[in-house]
Amino acid sequence: MSFRSVIAVLGVLAVVGLLVFGLATKGSSGLEIGDPVPTAAMPLLEGDGSRSLADYRGRWVLVNFWASWCPPCRAEASALEDFQRRYGGPRFAVLGIDTRDLSEDGRDFVAEFDLSYPQLRDGDGDVSHDFGTTGLPESFLVDPAGKLRLHAPGAVDEDYLDEAVAPLLPAGKS
Amino acid sequence: MRAGAILLAMLALALLAPSAGAADRASLTELEKQVMCPVCGTLLQLAESPQAQRERVFINRLIDEGKSEGEIKDALVAEYGDEVLALPPDSGFSLSAYVVPILALLVAAAALAIGVLRWRRAGGGPDAGGGSARPAATSERDSERLDADLARYDL
Question: Is the pTM of this model over 0.90?
């Protein structure tokens, strides 16, 4: 094969490779149960500093993606706060991630529903994409090893939290 | 006379000044064509989702505060990231979005020019010396053969 042919083949392979890469990265990642969850750092919604899911290793975490403009997120907020008050502690926490939202609107939402659990900000939606979310709200239960144990697309309510999430948590107030 | 003209010009400038200021003022209609609705993946101009409505409220508030178009875009990027801009910024890695197509065009033009030059040197051109000589020689041979054939039938 001549030098020119090699260059031509390499050129075609590069173009095909770019197309494949583009298609592969455009699609949703879609976490499976047992997969390690993304640990990118995100800024706190209120105050300075950032936090990552890696900071929660050793605890169960119910990660809840939400936005203030999302009506179902409003519907589930009180149930999540109630669950946090009943089960939150050194071994379990609800963690809110305000995604593709204006930070001020997000802070107003937290104040309106009097949410006491920590809130992070994912303004560009990158972390939400890494989790493979397809809409809002979505919740992910992460075990102490940082692996996905439960995925709840859509709004959760008190019954779901008590029947699907609570039995997986360590006994008693964690 | 000249003083009058100068006075008139100054008056005209004074009248034009407020309208120039108004032209610089950011407008929602213009910004909607330049920024995206991040959730919908379309221009804000075309979006009707609840998130788009909140984005419009945010932009209008900044316009009321007297922010310029650039400042409003910066504020939107701070909230939603670079993807909120319909066109990528012309700095950093995003600059490649503008530079790469131009470079690709230049490389393609250079490759085409080199190809044409080589083709012409190889005798592919219509006015190349070698290219025109060969058909002439062939014609002479054909003429000789034709003469010979005609001579044979000339009995």
Answer: no
Does A70 contact chain B (CB < 8 Å)?
A: yes
State how far the Cα of B68 lies from the Cα of B63, in Å rounded to an integer.
7
How far is B22 from chain A, CA to nearest CA, in Å? 28
Q: What is the pLDDT of residues A72-123, one digit of tens each?
A: 999 999 999 999 999 999 999 999 999 999 999 999 999 999 999 999 999 9
Q: Are strands A119-122 and A50-51 parallel, antiparallel or unpaired?
A: unpaired
- The CATH number of residue B60's host domain is 1.10.8.640
Q: For residue A147, what are its two tokens?
A: 């692996």
What amino acid occupies position A69?
Answer: W
What is the C-alpha end-to-end distance of chain B, expressed in Å?
107
Report the SS3 class of residue B155. coil
The nearest alpha carbon in chain B to A102 belongs to B79
Q: Name the residue facing A100 among B51, B53, B78 (closest C-beta).
A: B51
Number of domains composing chain B: 2
Predicted ipTM of the assembly: 0.78
- The CATH superfamily holding the domain A31-168 is Glutaredoxin (3.40.30.10)
In tens, the pLDDT along A136-154 reads: 999 999 999 999 999 999 9
Is the predicted pLDDT of residue B20 greater than 50, yes or no? Answer: no
Chain B contact for A82, CB < 8 A? no
Instruction: Point out the residue among B49, B58, B83 whose CB comes nearest to the CB of A124.
Output: B83
CB contact under 8 A, A123 and B80: yes
Q: How far apart are CA B2 and CA A146, in angstroms?
A: 82
